[in-house]
Design goal:
The chain is about 35% helix and about 25% strand. With about 375 residues, the chain is α/β, with parallel strands linked by helices.
């Protein structure tokens, strides 16, 4: 695509042979932007994203490029970063490889955008932030949950004062990941092999930004982790010892005084409307929000339940809640944030989903794991970046 009104931006995309990098970032975000003719920057120009696929397996990269009609792919990360035509580096690799690659990209002067967690430890995550600032590059971390329709509706209610004083937040996330013997597992075996690869490291960076963005800063955390399924089978049918935690149960106190209870598990069978749900209770009303839907019950229409175990429950509790309307179109959550980040790269301006935000997520995950290991509640002391 060429023309005086079009600005091409080449994006080195590392990790797109993986499930998340392939489906959400390449296909449903970058390629979807190309299908709509690029990104309208609002100043008479359009940004045309040109992906350069990066990875370790030449065969898989070649096949992926051929499948989507893409010209550029490479197994040489250093070569990709030395290419002056590359303006942005994106990373969706495994966490253990991410920090070193991001450092290289920042040193090469590339704007960086990446999945979370940004590093294995808080020191490394904060160091990435400082390096990006010193290099003068723009930087972002995927915070897709904020762009889900259900969470955006929940944010609308918070901003509108619907809840009054918020008392509590209860989050339920997860599903049953098959062990791999009778049915193939839905997640790669590497997720369970290393002690640092558990669900706490995976999900607490999400919970940090969801709680902070919607309900305010976190004051303390008390967590309990578990490896409920200690024996699993890999992609070749071979059994292995699962060392990573597959469940974490946590209580977090917010600076407002509200209490958040979060259950995250790969060993739970779903009996709720969506795989992720938050219930928020306040003095004036309550809401239950999932990936797409959000339902509310205001104080003025709250029924009067009476505890009587000798009689069947009167009425359908779920039917007593009202659906929050969309009131606006909702894009794919990953694509929505890609659009914002690419606008930030092209035009500058305020941007809060940066590497410092990513570091806060890493810090909370590590604090939760320490809390579980030591069996005590820990304060979240944030003195600065």
């Amino acid at each position: 695509m060429t023309g005086t009104d079009t600005r091409t931006l080449r994006i080195a995309m590392n990790g797109v042979t993986g499930r998340m990098g392939h489906h959400q970032h390449l296909v449903r975000s970058v390629l979807a932007l190309r299908e709509q003719g690029g990104l309208d920057l609002g100043d008479g120009t359009r940004l045309w994203p040109e992906p350069l696929l990066v990875g370790r397996d030449a065969g898989r990269l070649r096949a992926l490029a051929g499948r989507y009609g893409l010209e550029h792919w490479t197994t040489d990360l250093d070569g990709a970063l030395s290419d002056p035509a590359v303006g942005v580096y994106f990373d969706a690799q495994i966490t253990s490889a991410r920090e070193a690659a991001l450092r290289k990209a920042i040193a090469a002067g590339k704007h960086v955008y990446c999945e979370k967690p940004t590093a294995l430890d808080a020191g490394g995550a904060v160091d990435l932030y400082h390096r990006a600032r010193a290099a003068g590059v723009r930087h972002g971390v995927v915070q897709d949950k904020l762009f889900l329709p259900g969470i955006r509706k929940l944010k609308r209610l918070v901003d509108g004062g619907f809840f009054g004083r918020i008392l509590s937040v209860r989050g339920e996330f997860g599903y049953w990941v098959f062990e791999g013997d009778q049915q193939p597992a839905q997640r790669p075996s590497w997720n369970y092999r290393g002690e640092d690869d558990g669900i706490t490291s995976d999900m607490f960076p999400h919970w940090e930004y969801v709680l902070s963005e919607l309900f305010g800063p976190i004051r303390s955390v008390q967590a309990h982790t578990a490896t409920h399924i200690p024996r699993r089978w890999d992609e070749h049918g071979k059994p292995y010892e699962a060392r990573a935690d597959d469940a974490v149960y946590a209580v977090l106190e917010l600076e407002s005084g509200a209490v958040a209870q979060l259950n995250s598990s790969w060993a739970v069978r779903v009996h709720r409307d969506e795989l992720l749900e938050f219930q928020v209770d306040g003095t004036e009303g309550s809401a239950v929000a999932g990936l797409r839907h959000c339902r509310v019950q205001h104080r003025s229409v709250t029924p009067r339940p009476v505890w009587n175990p000798d009689e069947p429950a009167a009425g359908d509790f779920r039917a007593q809640w009202q659906e929050v309307p969309d009131n606006e179109p909702f894009e794919n959550a990953f694509k929505a944030q890609w659009e914002l980040f690419l606008r930030h790269v092209a035009l500058g301006g305020p941007w809060r989903h940066d590497l410092l935000a990513g570091a806060r997520g890493v810090r909370l995950a590590l604090l939760a794991r320490t809390s579980a290991r030591e069996g005590r509640r820990l304060p979240l002391r944030v003195t600065g970046p």
